[in-house]
Amino acid sequence: MSPDDLTRSLKQEARRLGFDLVGVTRAAEPSGFGRLEDWLASGHAGRMRYLADRREAYRHPRHVLDGVRSLLMLGVGYRSAEPVPIEPGQGRISRYAWGLDYHELIHARLKRLVAFHRRLVPEAVVRGVVDTAPLLEREFAQRAGLGWIGKNTMLINPKLGSWVFLAALLSGEALDVDSPSAESHCGSCRACLDACPTGALIEPYRLDARRCISYLTIELRESIDEPLRESIGERLFGCDACQEACPWNRHAPATREEAFAPRDGENPVDLGEWFALDDEAFRDRFRHTPLWRARRRGLLRNAAIVLGNTRPAPPGAEAALRQGLRDEDPMVREACSWALARHEA
Ligand code: B12
Ligand code: SF4
Ligand code: SF4
Q1: Which residue's CA is minimally distant from atom 79 of ligand 1?
Q2: pLDDT tops 90 at residue 345
Q3: From CA 317, how far away is CA 297, in angstroms rounded?
Q4: Is 181 a domain residue?
Q5: Cβ proximity of 260 and 116 under 8 Å
Q6: Which of 49, 97, 161, 231 qualifies as a cystine partner to 249, CB 3.0-4.6 A?
Q7: Spatial distance between the Cα atoms of 94 and 14, rounded to a whole number of angstroms
Q8: What is the predicted pLDDT for the residue at 257?
């Protein structure tokens, strides 16, 4: 099969499977590798050891798939409903986590795309990845023409904005490459930097994860530094401030993926009742959602901080936090104690 025919067939199949953005780039060293190294060396990755541990693997996509020659970069839009106002006692979940865990949906599609590729070229080496492989997905997406990297570090597509999940199909075949997107369309705008509640965007295109609410509420497995807690406000899980502020997101169309629509009663979510749930109850409720990454202890830590930030104390919050004071996990107990002290102050 000619590279031209193979590329066309793969792109057609990717779109048929529900990928909104599709583009091809060559497997090569990412120009951002130096920036990644610098970012890691500055400590900006915080405790995300899995990035530093695989530093060398980011040097070339061949460390993700031996023999890779091309990357089919893929995007799925996830803007569904619009955020609604928060009532006292509730917490806000960022848009990407409203529905099904995107890894599940995208993995299933990648599996079918890999099988399709193998049907066309049975001897091909091919692998689908989403999020977790040592691959600078945003840079490869920019190279494949999916969009540019904004000052908030997000990959922004001119039509879909930044409400897009990324994934990659790595192939040992030589595919026809697309033209890269322009470097940036941010111009003199700095709305995202101004909107960031914690100053985590320390300069254009550079994020200090240690201050980023997304990192603090999702990735950090320890207590959140006290000076940062107030800025978290009502954000229970993740943060969208630097994307909500972006003009390129204003007219982004809604996704056709029903799986990304908000789950009933969880956008926003009532927090008081959580403190009575055990590990199994959390697992049952959140296992197939992005929230499960933070586990019960992370979610309760975040819930206590949101309740502590809600003043006056919402009905039932004090009783819930007192229950949290008896929790088996010290991190949860400490966050509840902080929240109660704020209400007593
Ligand atoms: C670690 C990680 C995080 C960390 C660190 C984020 C960060 N900015 O580095 C934390 C936990 C904070 C995070 C948060 C979020 N994440 Co995240 N995250 C990742 C992950 C796993 C790795 C990113 C990474 O390698 N960072 C290290 C830095 C150095 O690399 P980079 O961000 O790609 O930065 C490049 C550019 O900034 C560029 N660059 C740097 N300087 C300059 C200067 C100029 C002039 C130019 C042009 C470019 C440029 O060079 C870098 C290297 O190429 C990726 C998946 C993946 N494998 O890529 C998802 C990913 C980036 N995350 C994603 C999402 C959805 C989010 C959140 C929106 C979730 C939320 N709502 O809370 C937030 C957004 C916060 C933000 N503004 O970035 C999506 C982003 C999709 C998109 N459209 O961009 C990804 C791609 C996952 C996916 N498969 O869809 N994330
Ligand atoms: S996700 Fe929130 S905290 Fe993180 S950089 Fe964007 S606005 Fe700042
Ligand atoms: S808010 Fe402005 S500066 Fe930030 S990413 Fe969007 S266009 Fe770029």
Answers
A1: 165
A2: no
A3: 18
A4: no
A5: no
A6: 161
A7: 27
A8: 94
Cα 139 to ligand 1 centroid, rounded to whole Å = 9
Distance 99 CA to ligand 2 centre (A): 21
Q: What is the signed CA dihedral for 137, 138, 144, 150, rounded to 10 degrees?
A: 180
Q: Looking at the annotation, which residues are catalytic?
A: 131
Inside any domain, residue 135: yes
What pTM, to 2 d.p., does this model score? 0.97
Which residue from 164, 189, 206, 240 has its CB within 8 A of the most atoms of ligand 3, so it is best to mutate?
A: 189
Mean pLDDT of all residues in 84-95: 95
Clarify whether residues 8 and 127 are in a common domain.
yes
| Shared-domain flag, residues 280 and 334 | yes
Q: Ligand 1 mean position to 1 CA, how many Å?
A: 36
Q: How many CB atoms lie within 10 A of CB 223?
A: 15
* Structural domain that includes position 196: 191-344
- Measured from the CB, is residue 245 less than 6 Å from ligand 3? yes
User: Does 265 share its domain with 126?
Assistant: no
Count of domains for the chain:
2
Q: What is the pLDDT of residue 333?
A: 98
